[in-house]
């Protein structure tokens, strides 16, 4: 058994797939995707087709993190809805097979944009892709929780209170140094969490363009990926996550739109994207949006602090990139404080 995050025991995976994945046959070849920092992801090729395997990292992990069983459950539940997801084949919760839990799903052919400026596309297509991103977000938040069996997918009650408490604990558990801005942001969020307004939907938890696959021939979304942080909760957190990413610098590292001439590129302003979402969801507007934005900066800071800690501990999917990402935690904290000042 090989429990290294960077590799797989091909023989163990093959034997398990023959027993659990209908139609699987042939010898496996494996290639690890370099994208993604949380759950190591692999492309599996055999004579019966191409598959994707996502595994929980081996080693000591934070409680409730890397829940591949939840990723599998939610995508399986969404198969018959208007939310585009990959087909789920099988889940393995037996750590003895490869050293940690994993699942196997369909490998979908599609375009992935890791840069929201989408170099190489014309302005009309860029605008259509972002509008599709908006449509799919509204579709996620319109999923019938009862009909899909997801009513118990997350606790009821105040989502933000729950999330602030959870991510504060996660951050403290992976803290490697004192970051004053992060401490200040946590204090502010703790004091300014809104009351429960009764809005409860499916939320993705990490909704951004690089967690989506789009058609090779048009702007349609063919799959939403990376459901690890999904739960039932408050939909504005997903919307604010999109706006949060866009406030980052452009390019491979920031993957944002800060300073970009959006109109020239055919991209909407923050306000236009929010307005389009509100129209789709039949909402009059979103007061105190700065809170939701501050919350998203905090949560992302806590997430990448965890990535940094795993890199230092030797459990990261991509250790070098993990350490580089970890250096941005103070910047996310400062951005969260700026958003808080607008509330």
From TrEMBL:
<protein>
    <submittedName>
        <fullName>Aminoglycoside phosphotransferase</fullName>
    </submittedName>
</protein>
<dbReference type="InterPro" id="IPR052898">
    <property type="entry name" value="ACAD10-like"/>
</dbReference>
<feature type="domain" description="Aminoglycoside phosphotransferase">
    <location>
        <begin position="29"/>
        <end position="253"/>
    </location>
</feature>
<dbReference type="InterPro" id="IPR011009">
    <property type="entry name" value="Kinase-like_dom_sf"/>
</dbReference>
<dbReference type="InterPro" id="IPR041726">
    <property type="entry name" value="ACAD10_11_N"/>
</dbReference>
<dbReference type="Pfam" id="PF01636">
    <property type="entry name" value="APH"/>
</dbReference>
<dbReference type="InterPro" id="IPR002575">
    <property type="entry name" value="Aminoglycoside_PTrfase"/>
</dbReference>
<keyword id="KW-0418">Kinase</keyword>
<dbReference type="GO" id="GO:0016301">
    <property type="term" value="F:kinase activity"/>
</dbReference>
<keyword id="KW-0808">Transferase</keyword>
């Amino acid at each position: 058994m090989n429990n290294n995050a960077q590799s797989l025991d091909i023989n163990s995976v093959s034997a398990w797939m023959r027993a659990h994945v209908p139609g699987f046959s042939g010898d496996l070849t494996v290639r690890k995707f370099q994208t993604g920092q949380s759950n190591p992801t692999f492309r599996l090729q055999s004579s019966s087709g191409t598959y994707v395997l996502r595994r929980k990292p081996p080693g000591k992990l934070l409680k409730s993190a890397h829940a591949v069983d939840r990723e599998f459950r939610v995508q399986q539940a969404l198969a018959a809805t208007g939310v585009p997801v990959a087909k789920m084949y099988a889940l393995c919760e037996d750590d003895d097979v490869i050293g940690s839990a994993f699942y196997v799903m369909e490998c979908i052919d599609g375009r992935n944009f890791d840069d929201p400026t989408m170099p190489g596309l014309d302005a009309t297509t860029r605008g259509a892709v972002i509008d599709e991103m908006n449509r799919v977000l509204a579709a996620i938040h319109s999923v019938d929780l009862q009909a899909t069996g997801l009513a118990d997918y997350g606790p009821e009650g105040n989502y933000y209170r729950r999330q602030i408490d959870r991510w504060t604990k996660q951050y403290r558990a992976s803290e490697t140094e004192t970051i004053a801005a992060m401490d200040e942001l946590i204090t502010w969020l703790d004091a300014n969490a809104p009351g429960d307004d009764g809005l409860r939907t499916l939320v993705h938890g990490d909704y951004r363009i690089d967690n989506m696959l789009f058609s090779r021939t048009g702007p349609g979304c063919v799959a939403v990926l990376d459901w690890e942080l999904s739960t039932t909760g408050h939909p504005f957190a997903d919307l604010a996550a999109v706006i949060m990413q866009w406030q980052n610098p452009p390019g491979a590292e920031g993957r944002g739109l800060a300073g970009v001439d959006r109109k020239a590129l055919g991209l909407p302003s923050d306000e236009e994207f929010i307005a389009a979402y509100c129209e789709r969801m039949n909402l009059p507007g979103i007061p105190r949006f700065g809170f939701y934005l501050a919350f998203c900066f905090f949560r992302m800071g806590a997430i990448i602090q965890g990535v940094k800690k795993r890199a230092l501990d030797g459990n990261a999917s991509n250790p070098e990139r993990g350490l580089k990402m970890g250096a941005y935690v103070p910047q996310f904290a400062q951005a969260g404080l700026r958003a808080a000042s607008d509330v």
